[in-house]
Amino acid sequence: MSDDATLPELVRAWTSGWAVSRGAADPAPEPWGWSIDVGQQRHVWRHVLPEPAEAEVRKLTEGTTVPWTWLKLFAEEERVLPWIGPGWHQDGPGYLMTLPLRPGPGRPAAPAGYRITTWSRGGTVRVLVRTTGGEFAARGQVGLAPATPLGGRTDAPLLAVADQIETAPEHRRRGLGSAVMRTLQHEAHEAGARTALLVGTTEGRALYTGLGWTLRSPMASFWYDPSTPTGRPHGGS
After folding, report:
1. CA 163 to chain centre
2. What's the average model confidence in pLDDT over 194-212?
């Protein structure tokens, strides 16, 4: 994927790799973007709009009746928030970021006192960090998809979508997040991917920027359930 890729192209790529990572259904094209059947109790399906317009967002939010429908709008929260109908809740902001993948000197070493395990299944590469005693410390994964997904060429180069990056609270500030990301980047390049994408949280944005990732767009996130009090359920990107 070229550096001058448009935002809709980047969001399309992220959407495709995210669906692989989560084991979700193939994204279904819509006039405004894509819908994905996710199939989880608190994430039934999601709508992804790379260039949200007020009329489209109002129609979607006012017409939604299924609880735990998610809405991902690639725009500043302040711009789209007035368009959101009743029954919707605002999740934390996200940031679409990209990174060109290049060959490195080898698989990154685990920090002292930890060990790293990697495996791949169904187009998803997973990284697990545990203490030398076996306790969980950190994890992450990437979904691999063609660089021209959703009906494009099947022989296109792969891209990698980093997802579900997590460090246990008691193991933070020990370089484990960086170790997970560098390992994922290495494994994705070894698998044939040449571009990586992710949507990070506000906290993760600083980590990814320090690792060379480039911010491409903010993302506003909302979920629907009229019976739930206002609050953030931490549903993930």
Report:
1. 5
2. 95
